[in-house]
Amino acid sequence: MSLASVADCAQPASPEAVRHDWTREEVRALFARPFPDLMFEAQRVHRLHFDPRAVQISTLMSIKTGGCPEDCAYCPQSAHYETGVKAEKLASLEAVLAEAQAAKAAGATRFCMGAAWRTPKDRDLDRVCAMIEGVKALGMETCVTLGMLTAAQAARLKRAGLDYYNHNLDTSPEFYGRIITTRTYEDRLATLAHVREAGIAVCCGGIVGLGESVEDRVGMITVLANLPKHPESVPINMLVRVAGTPLAEEPTVDPLDFVRTVAVARITMPRSFVRLSAGREEMSDEMQALCLLAGANSIFFGPKLLTTPNPAHSHDRRLLDRLGMVAMEAADRPS
Fold first, then answer.
1. What is the mean pLDDT of residues 74-79?
2. What's the distance, Cα to Cα, between the start and end of the chain in Å?
3. Which of 48, 78, 132, 203 has an alpha carbon within 20 to 30 A of 153's alpha carbon?
């Protein structure tokens, strides 16, 4: 038998069924697994659905910075806190397209745009739709995060050609009120429903290191994994502690606890892109490598994520090279 035949026989005949009925007990048990067993299972599941060497590259631009009326305790853009971030007007179409073109030249295949709003005004949405159309014309996927949406606003974004909408749950339903009081968990779920109904793919994840317990991480993953359709992209963020915010003095999350969260997200949402998002500037190369082994297969390129630092392109390129990993081409992404 040839080596190729041996390799073919080693592959499962078909991917396992994707579940939407995870219990808290099952998710809790995943978090409690011995680390080698958890990593092995996460890597096994990852290889059923993705090339284990391929990493999707995205770039995130703040198109409207600061002055947000929400009181998210981690966010330097909240008007409730003195963080040194000043409110700015919505960026021009020309500025956004220049950033998108530079991101594409650096290897990004998705361009994400974030605006610090509670919910967009219709006149602003028209300008954002022009940005979406312009970025699409460059041959890139588009994603925006604009706060809460109505069904009509989601439909308008879909007509503009939007591919993804980001709206994170942040944490568990039980811990959520400790982090945000200006909108409810149900508000977030309603926006996700509007995005789904409009036919836009969902980008939705959370933040680790807010002061939450392991049980809160269990709760967050359980909610995400039991959505009627899993988010196509699941960002797992590590808290970036910003002076002036209520969480500025939170202890640093244990690196292996963070890796466990990535692994459990991969196992419970096997076909989703799991994105290693905010906080990478404070992660060692070894921690990031473990996250990639645990099933993360998407990162942001660029020196800044909205208003907080991110590793330089050159550093990320060197890390991927050292690991024998490659940037995922647009044509290689699973449908």
1. 88
2. 33
3. 78
Q: β-strand 164-166 against 141-145: which pairing, if any?
A: parallel
Burial class (CB in 10 A: 0-12, 13-18, 19+), 212: buried
Amino acid symbol at 192: L
Helix (H, G, I), strand (E, B) or coil at 284: coil
* CA nearest neighbour of 167 among 191, 141, 150: 191
What single-letter amino acid sits at 239?
Answer: L
State the DSSP string of 287-334: HHHHHHHTT--EEE-SSEETTEE---HHHHHHHHHHHT-EEPPGGGS-
Query: Can you give the C-alpha Rg of the chain in angstroms?
Result: 19
* 235: its two tokens: 């960002």
CA 225 vs. chain centroid, Å, equals 14
Active site residues: 68, 72, 75, 112, 143, 203, 275
Q: Taking a C-beta distance cutoff of 8 angstroms, is the pair 234, 205 a contact?
A: yes
pTM here is 0.87
Note whether 48 and 12 are within 8 A (CB): yes
Contact 56, 298 (CB under 8 A): yes
Contact 29, 218 (CB under 8 A): no
pLDDT range class, residue 122, cuts 50, 70, 90 = confident
Beta bridge partners of 308: 305
Q: Compute the average pLDDT of residues 41-58.
A: 93
Q: What is the DSSP string of 63-103?
A: EE-S-B----TT-TTBTTS-SSPPP-PPPPHHHHHHHHHHH
Q: What span, in angstroms and rounded, lies between the C-alpha atoms of 172 and 295?
A: 22
